[in-house]
Design a protein that fits this description.
mainly beta, protein yfey like fold, 11% helix
């Protein structure tokens, strides 16, 4: 079955190295109770917040590249990629790619305006307001989205609960799109994501 090329991406594994140091015997033992009340710092940085039809967390459609970098930090990769080949009026896109512990998240901007257009994630670290994330089952997606869940029909093959692309639309350029393989969500996309094969 032809695959939908909604974003160019591949999963990477990030190795985290921790430094070791000797303990200072003159320092008092930390108060375990007060340490438990401190929220841990994000391990990997990058995008955080809820996956929405118009963005990730505080990063919303229309924001600039610089505004998103200020929110999420510098990406591992910044590159310019072609827009949808099926749309003769499509512009090139600026892609900010953030690697996480278990996948990759890309945020795409219209090149001329440098405004956020869409995103994709192949990481289970981010989820929708309904708790759907990479690894969720099609049944979970269908249950939470209900009648709003629509199949994206490409060619003659209609998506199924085992394989295909499904979406929930929140406006003409705002949707959540879910790539299903073997009955599980493998990628979540948001924003303006035209189908390009």
């Amino acid at each position: 079955m032809p695959r939908v090329l909604l974003a160019i991406c591949s999963a990477l594994t990030v190795a985290v190295l921790a430094g070791c140091g000797g303990a200072d015997v003159n320092q008092p033992e930390p108060d375990v109770q007060s340490q438990a009340d401190i929220a841990p710092a994000p391990k990997y940085g990058g995008p955080e917040g809820t996956l929405e039809p118009d963005g990730i967390g505080e990063a919303k459609q229309g924001m600039s590249v610089d505004e998103v970098i200020e929110l999420f930090g510098d990406p591992e990769t910044r590159e310019t990629v072609p827009g949808c080949e099926l749309d003769s009026e499509a512009h090139s896109l600026i892609s900010l790619i953030y690697d996480t512990q278990d996948g990759r998240t890309g945020i795409l901007f219209d090149e001329p305006s440098e405004e956020l257009q869409s995103y994709y994630t192949m990481s289970s670290e981010l989820e929708t307001a309904d708790g759907i994330r990479v690894g969720s089952t099609y049944e979970d997606l269908s249950h939470t989205a209900g009648d709003d869940l629509e199949p994206l029909i490409l060619g003659s093959e209609e998506p199924s609960g085992d394989e295909g692309v499904w979406y929930v639309e929140d406006g003409p350029e705002q949707r959540l799109t879910f790539d299903i393989q073997d009955g599980r969500v493998t990628q979540v996309l948001g924003g303006y994501t035209p189908a390009c094969e």
